[in-house]
Amino acid sequence: MRLRLVLATILFCLTCPLAFAENTNSIWFAGQYIKIGTPKARIFDKLVSDYKLRKVGDTDQWAVQDSAPPHRHVGIIAFKNGKVDFVNKSWGGGEETYGKSMEPFEIIYRALSSISEEGKPRPIVLELHESKDPEGSIKTIRLNFGKKTFEIGIPNMRDSKNAVSLSEILWP
Predict the structure, then answer these.
(1) Better pLDDT: 166 or 113
(2) Residue ranges per domain, the chain?
(3) pLDDT tens digit string along 63-117?
(4) Which residue, 101, 130, 136, 166, has fewest beta-carbon neighbours within 10 Å?
(5) How far is CA 25 from CA 1, 29, 171, in A?
(6) CB–CB of 11/112 below 8 Å?
(7) DSSP letter string over 137-156?
(8) If you write DSSP's letter for every residue of 39-77 in order, what string do you get?
(9) What is the spatial distance between Cα 37 and Cα 85, in angstroms, rounded to a whole number?
(10) What are the residues facing 26 on neighbouring strands?
């Protein structure tokens, strides 16, 4: 079951239209395309009016949530010198998001078909990481291409509900 969910998450990432978009220098985040270096003044008013924001720490970094309950986590955006410096878009996680109905081989076939129909090679760098502590472990799968990274977090914590997370990240 866990393997199916992990495979479904990885392959959803590969089949996502934004993952193979021609322009890998922008990200669809909170209802608008955002690029590294976009002036904060151009996008912040829309974020404030349409979403629930929470400042993270002492920096100009913000956690963004849907304004309506259950306040789904949209992601994180950070600004430096009045411009976008980092965007982390949440794609959700767990069985509630991706379901159980699709068989892993169907997902793999669809992902590979989508890539081959594109007809354009995309260099992708795969990174795997595992961190362990007395409370459990977190495995991370990163697919890096251009300035975008798709990150899949697979927790195995002792005293909490474990849910796979999937994020799309745009780096400077």
Answers:
(1) 166
(2) 2-170
(3) 999 998 888 888 999 999 999 999 998 876 544 444 555 544 454 445 444 444 4
(4) 101
(5) 35, 13, 9
(6) no
(7) EEEEEEEEETTEEEEEEEEE
(8) BHHHHHHHHHHHEEEEE-TTSSEEEEEESSTT--EEEEE
(9) 6
(10) 35
DSSP 102: S
Residue 129 neighbours by CB distance under 10 Å: 11
Which residue, chain included where needed, has tokens 């959700």?
Answer: 92
Strands 83-93 and 125-133: unpaired
Who contacts 127 (Cβ-Cβ below 8 Å, separation ≥6)? 140, 141, 142, 144
**Token reading at 67:** 């304004």
Tokens of 6: 């992990």
For the beta carbon of residue 21, count every other beta carbon within 10 angstroms: 15
Which tokens hold the place of 129?
């990481």
Q: Cβ distance 77 to 62 under 8 Å?
A: yes
